[in-house]
């Protein structure tokens, strides 16, 4: 076994590998750029080596710099994580030349399966059903349009060396094919150093289901069930679960056996993932093979008990798999939600800044575990588990240079329904402040009827949130529970305020029992009957809610029981009430006396400023291109400029017809959120 491993990556996956290496008694080496000097993976590793400036193409994906770090530290093996150099055959060759083990598949497997064009040809030759498409190299945008017409719209334009949703576009017409080809080419060059593009038919109403395979160098290969990855945004997965609520055992077996056969055909050894598109009739089509560890691997680990990183390391050291296919069993259900540094209220655009508060829910263990090739029993009935894979900490910064994902929150339970319930509570318990984040959106998905039913496709987000995410409107029953909780909490805070020292003599303030609670456009008249154990909140009309909690004023997280049901509320102080965030809703809750409520109803509402004649920068980013000039008339939907942030190009378009009167930014300018890019007459 190895004594020292270098992790050629950053963020949460570097931290994840370090945890397993530490468990195995292996020392670890981290590499870092200027932007990651104080990063969590640097703090966790036994050694750390600086490798260059913040941009990945000047640090993390420069093979010579990584090799220099290996020589400097004497690392015997390298785990590449995912992204960066994980599917780079030249990197694997460089390691082999130095006599350093690559914790991943052989070079020929990377070359044949890591390249999407080659992998499709191999799959076709092996008799695997594939999606129609053009596998040759595409010279320019004109040829891309021609090929797209031959295949038939809609088409998917993809980077051959791509991954993680980078360098991918869906085109529904010639104009989008032309634009998508150039944007995909640019993103591919920046992210992977390879701008080759191919085009395939975009299958509508598909489900994205992938099979986890694990092979060793002794000819053994197994599959560890599937992962449902259909909830995606901009071709990037947001929610994953294992197993899939759609597959039956027969289809699972057929997909698994086909995935293993494909892996063996290329001499695969290590963990890998074979991705499929599955239609409504359970017909499945080979999509691609990722010759690396997947981002969503934790859900597979939670239902199988297999530490995939450990097995990758053991295989790289020449070890044999500790189990055969008949030993694999899927226990319970696991769900993963990806926490992204992006603002769902601004079209999910990237957000950067300092994490002024970062408090994940407490991690708990449950489920089966595989140790020394033996199962450690079944999971106890009724138990749940929470796991959070992360690479950040409170006070750390989210940089504009890297992927916006900052954590992967996972829950496990014996059933899917219980796993969803556990995830709801975990999301409500996750405290993040200082940046825009997608926690409210994730909570909304967990409560969405389509997700709960398991009847979703890769078009879920586009279909259910066509105008973007605008928050959650809670049902009246949920509002009443939150109103009851806030009324009881407000009473506790008022009592605290009456006990402040230094008050005037002979002046005693009494806390009343009658209150008006206003939230989400509704008002409730309540009367509070309190005792030592809690409070009974009586609503006008007869409903009563028993509220108990150990919340004290100043706590930013309140766990409250309302009629026996547990609510987890993120709580912020506001004038005459609270800012409450729960189940994806962001609520301004006012708790007033009847007289205060009467007077508040007479106050005028503040009107937001008019920004209709301004193009504001929706995210911190770099201006790549300006497509218009002063005095030019623009039409609705016309390209105005392109902004690059977190490795993604975003085209800003005109919302309405107008004339450009002023341009305040030029290519190369770095802008902050809401900086004015251009003005209109």
TrEMBL record:
UniProt keyword Glycosyltransferase present: no
Associated pathway: Metabolic intermediate metabolism; propanoyl-CoA degradation; succinyl-CoA from propanoyl-CoA: step 1/3
Domain ATP-grasp positions: 120-317
Domain Lipoyl-binding: start-end pairs: 605-681
EC number: 6.4.1.3
Keywords from the UniProt entry: ATP-binding, Biotin, Ligase, Lipid degradation, Lipid metabolism, Magnesium, Manganese, Metal-binding, Nucleotide-binding
Entry-linked CDD domains: biotinyl_domain
Catalysed conversion reaction: propanoyl-CoA + hydrogencarbonate + ATP = (S)-methylmalonyl-CoA + ADP + phosphate + H(+)
Domain Biotin carboxylation, residue spans: 1-466
Swiss-Prot/TrEMBL cofactor(s): biotin
UniProt cross-references to SMART domains, sorted A to Z: Biotin_carb_C (SM00878)
Keyword hit for Transport: no
NCBIfam families, alphabetized: PRK08591.1
This protein's name: propionyl-CoA carboxylase
The species this protein was found in: Leisingera aquaemixtae
Highest classification ranks of the organism: Bacteria, Pseudomonadati, Pseudomonadota, Alphaproteobacteria, Rhodobacterales
């Amino acid at each position: 076994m190895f004594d020292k491993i270098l992790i050629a990556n950053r963020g949460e996956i570097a931290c994840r590998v370090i945890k397993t290496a530490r468990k195995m008694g292996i020392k670890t080496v981290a590499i870092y750029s200027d932007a990651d000097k104080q990063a969590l993976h640097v703090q966790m590793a036994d050694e750390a080596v600086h490798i260059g400036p913040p941009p990945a193409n000047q640090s993390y994906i420069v093979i010579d710099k990584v090799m220099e770090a290996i020589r400097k530290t004497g690392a015997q093996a390298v785990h590449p994580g995912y992204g960066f150099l994980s599917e780079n055959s030249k990197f694997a060759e460089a390691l082999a030349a130095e006599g350093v083990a690559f914790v991943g598949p052989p070079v020929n497997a990377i070359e044949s399966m890591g390249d999407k064009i080659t992998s499709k040809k191999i799959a076709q030759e092996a008799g695997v059903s594939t999606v129609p498409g053009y596998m040759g190299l595409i010279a320019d945008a004109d040829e891309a349009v021609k090929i797209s017409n031959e295949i038939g719209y809609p088409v998917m334009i993809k980077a051959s060396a791509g991954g993680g949703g980078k360098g991918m576009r869906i085109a529904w017409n010639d104009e989008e094919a032309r634009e998508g080809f150039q944007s995909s080419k640019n993103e591919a060059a920046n992210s992977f150093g390879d701008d080759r593009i191919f085009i395939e038919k975009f299958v509508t109403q598909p489900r994205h289901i992938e099979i986890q395979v694990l092979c060793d160098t002794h000819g053994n290969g197994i599959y560890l069930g599937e992962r449902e990855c259909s909830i995606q945004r901009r071709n990037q997965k947001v929610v994953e679960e294992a197993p899939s609520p759609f597959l039956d055992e027969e289809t699972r077996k057929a997909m698994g056996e086909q995935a293993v056969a494909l892996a063996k055909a290329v001499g695969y050894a290590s963990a890998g993932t074979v991705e499929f598109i599955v239609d409504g009739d359970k017909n499945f089509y080979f999509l691609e093979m990722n010759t690396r560890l997947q981002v969503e691997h934790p859900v597979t680990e939670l239902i199988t008990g297999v530490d995939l990183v450990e097995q990758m390391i053991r295989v790289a050291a020449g070890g044999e798999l500790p189990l055969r296919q008949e030993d694999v069993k899927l226990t319970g259900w696991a769900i993963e939600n990806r926490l992204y540094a992006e603002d769902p209220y601004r079209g999910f655009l990237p957000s950067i800044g300092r994490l002024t508060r970062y408090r994940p829910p407490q991690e708990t263990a449950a489920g089966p575990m595989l140790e020394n090739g033996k199962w450690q029993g079944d999971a106890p009935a009724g138990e749940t588990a929470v796991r959070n894979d992360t690479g950040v900490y409170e006070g750390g910064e989210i940089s504009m240079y890297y992927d916006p994902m900052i954590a992967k929150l996972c829950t496990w339970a014996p059933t899917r329904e219980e796993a969803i319930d556990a995830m709801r509570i975990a999301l409500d318990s996750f405290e993040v402040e200082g940046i825009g984040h997608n926690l409210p959106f994730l909570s909304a998905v967990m409560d969405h009827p389509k997700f709960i039913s398991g009847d979703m496709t890769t078009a879920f987000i586009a279909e259910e949130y066509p105008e973007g995410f605008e928050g959650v409107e809670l049902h009246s029953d949920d509002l009443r529970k939150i109103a009851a909780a806030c009324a009881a909490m407000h009473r506790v805070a008022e009592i605290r305020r009456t006990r402040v020292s230094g008050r005037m003599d002979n002046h005693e303030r009494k806390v009343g029992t009658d209150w008006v609670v206003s939230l989400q456009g509704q008002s409730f008249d309540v009367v509070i009957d309190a005792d030592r154990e809690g409070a009974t909140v009586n609503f006008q009309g007869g409903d009563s809610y028993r509220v108990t909690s150990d919340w004290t004023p100043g706590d930013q997280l309140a766990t409250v029981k309302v009629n026996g049901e547990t609510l987890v509320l993120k709580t912020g102080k506001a004038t005459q009430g609270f800012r409450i965030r729960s189940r994806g809703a962001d609520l301004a809750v006012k708790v007033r006396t009847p007289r205060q409520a009467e007077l508040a109803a007479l106050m005028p509402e503040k009107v937001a400023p008019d920004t209709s004649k301004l193009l504001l920068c929706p995210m911190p980013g770099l201006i790549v291109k300006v497509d218009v000039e002063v005095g030019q008339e623009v039409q609705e939907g016309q390209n105005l400029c392109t902004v690059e942030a977190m490795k993604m190009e975003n085209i800003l378009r005109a919302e309405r017809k107008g004339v450009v009167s002023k341009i305040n930014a030029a290519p190369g300018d770095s802008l902050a959120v809401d900086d004015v890019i251009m003005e209109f007459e």
